[in-house]
UniProtKB/TrEMBL annotation:
<dbReference type="Pfam" id="PF08241">
    <property type="entry name" value="Methyltransf_11"/>
</dbReference>
<comment type="similarity">
    <text>Belongs to the methyltransferase superfamily.</text>
</comment>
<dbReference type="GO" id="GO:0032259">
    <property type="term" value="P:methylation"/>
</dbReference>
<keyword id="KW-0597">Phosphoprotein</keyword>
<feature type="compositionally biased region" description="Pro residues">
    <location>
        <begin position="227"/>
        <end position="240"/>
    </location>
</feature>
<keyword id="KW-0808">Transferase</keyword>
<dbReference type="InterPro" id="IPR029063">
    <property type="entry name" value="SAM-dependent_MTases_sf"/>
</dbReference>
<keyword id="KW-0949">S-adenosyl-L-methionine</keyword>
<protein>
    <recommendedName>
        <fullName>EEF1A lysine methyltransferase 4</fullName>
    </recommendedName>
</protein>
<feature type="region of interest" description="Disordered">
    <location>
        <begin position="221"/>
        <end position="245"/>
    </location>
</feature>
<dbReference type="GO" id="GO:0008757">
    <property type="term" value="F:S-adenosylmethionine-dependent methyltransferase activity"/>
</dbReference>
<keyword id="KW-0489">Methyltransferase</keyword>
<dbReference type="InterPro" id="IPR051419">
    <property type="entry name" value="Lys/N-term_MeTrsfase_sf"/>
</dbReference>
<comment type="function">
    <text>Protein-lysine methyltransferase that efficiently catalyzes three successive methylations on 'Lys-36' in eukaryotic translation elongation factor 1 alpha (EEF1A1 or EEF1A2).</text>
</comment>
<feature type="domain" description="Methyltransferase type 11">
    <location>
        <begin position="57"/>
        <end position="165"/>
    </location>
</feature>
<dbReference type="InterPro" id="IPR013216">
    <property type="entry name" value="Methyltransf_11"/>
</dbReference>
Amino acid sequence: GMERRRAPAAPPRYGRRRFWDTLYRREGAETREWLGGLSRFLPQLEPELRRSDRILVLGCGNSALSHDLHKLGYTDVTSIDFSPSCIMAMRARYAHCPSLRWAVMDIRSLAFPDASFDVVLEKGTLDVLMVEETDPWDVSPQAVASMHRVLAEVSRVLHPGGCFISITFAQPHFRKPHYAQEAFGWSLRHVACGDGDAGAFHYFLYIMRKGQPLDPCDVALGRRLHQPPPSPALTTPPAPPDDDEDYLLAIQL
């Protein structure tokens, strides 16, 4: 019969601060880009940004993203990560850019006042919340709850009219239900990015605009997230096409 394709279980270390701390200490100043550098998705990103935007980068890691934005003229950039050794290294590396701000913070509990950013940006950070999930068709209640907590915080710190931009390998079918919650008070759309080759691996930009309504189809999609999954006897979800790598594999170290 048709079997659900399961991604191999990833080691359960990505969510642990000690794992990241050790990694960043070992790598020192070397940058690591989970989903490629800024140039790959700048054409899709730039229309959403204004130079004067107050930008928050979630889970910055030792990516050059924040500094790349700064070089392009986005000078109000705050970057957070829950690894103290990462933030120390980034502060030191970019000490010559005093307008880049760095803070140790948990994305599930942001220490910023309401409506304090025009843009919240994340690249591959929310994927870490899903990395221990073995079946994308049936996400654990813990992962759903963690994702909801982070997104509620993102929504809270966003200014009305501001946007949350999420860059990820996660396909719309699996990721949109998490984002399409009316509680967050934002609209949702996505664009696929790739290198132009038909065979190139695509990733997605999800753009959520605070204070705009969700499309009714997305509302319906979001509601399904909190319903128990249908019994497998009644429905078998279609298997993803074989040439489509799982994003879990794409972000493994």
